[in-house]
Amino acid sequence: MIKVKRYALWLLLAVITGGVCGLCGVVFSKAVGFVTDVRAQNGWLIYLLPIGGLISVSVYKLCRVKNIGTTNVFDCVRTEQSLPKGLALSVFCGTAISHLFGASVGREGAALQIGGGVANILGRAFKLDEDSRHITVMCGMAALFSAVFGTPLAAWIFVLEVILTQLCLSAAIPVLLSSVTAFIIATLLGIHPERFDIGILPQFSISLVWKSAIIVVGCIIASFVFCKSLSLGKALFKKILRNEFLRIAVGGVLIVALTLFVGNREYNGGGIDIIERVFNDEIVHYEAFALKILFTVICVSAGYKGGEIIPTLFIGATLGGGLALLLGLPVGTGAAIGMAVLFATATKCPFATILLCGEMFGITCVPLIIPVVIISFALSHQLQGLYSNSKDIINLIKKYRKKLEGYA
Which residue ranges form the domains of the chain, and what is each CATH number? Predict the structure, then answer.
């Protein structure tokens, strides 16, 4: 009876968390959309990026938040580590500042942090025990991701795959309930889900197989370069520029210089508009993926707040679409394959990738995406990813491999 009451409590917390985070997701999405529009209409704002970075660091210090990223929010569920009370507010403000002045960051990673921060506050308010708090934080992360990106099923599985603890089994239904609740609220309040028109898929053929294989290998390499560069970039910036204010200001100056050198603003901000252009207009610049990697690595390494997921999808769409043009495949097909490979290899979440693609591109793409994701994950699961779940997945694979070998 106690267990039933306990699970009923988790379901109630899931609905509450989904409702609160859904509303927060609406405000966050509209805020980021508003500042992005302001930047688009006022190109001179890019020159203030170093100043915006200084403001962002100041906000974090005022909120008493230090050295907290998406991985730390995930670790909060795996351990007894708590999150700062000011996390949600600082991430919200920092991400808005980054988008206003043109830092190359996304919003979904920030949404995960805001959701975890909001749920952590709810956990403290309700004086929850450790397991209940962990489940609430998972609900918050999935809910914000779902509200902002409009992919409730992918958000649900993504959080469970990344966390990868024994608690995930008990948390599965509450997290799903929270994710769907947030999605419904966000949709009703005018947040449009991210959807892309993949076009008509080519018929199965040997030619499609080997051309897709080339795109898969190219995108795996790009994913490794991106994730490794982020890791090395953060370490290098911290080693050379120990002061946070100096570090983010120098990063801002570098981005301004690169923007002037490139001659356009396509690599500032998350880049969701460029992804849409790849699918809708079939316009792809072959160097776009490399420039996005460079811009994003500098911004994230310097300390600009946001996320890496939209830049990851940008890299996949432009590289996959570019290779498709060279190979004679439809651009939409190549871009979809590229996005699937980059997301799967960077996050190490194959099931979430399949659901994400199904929700973004439509159910008809799933037969194409499933083998692509399986092959990508099999070839790259030991390579560095964005989050610390990579090692957990590798250990899990080794564990079950030994069991299978024992049965044989």
Answer: 2-188 (1.10.3080.10), 206-394 (1.10.3080.10)
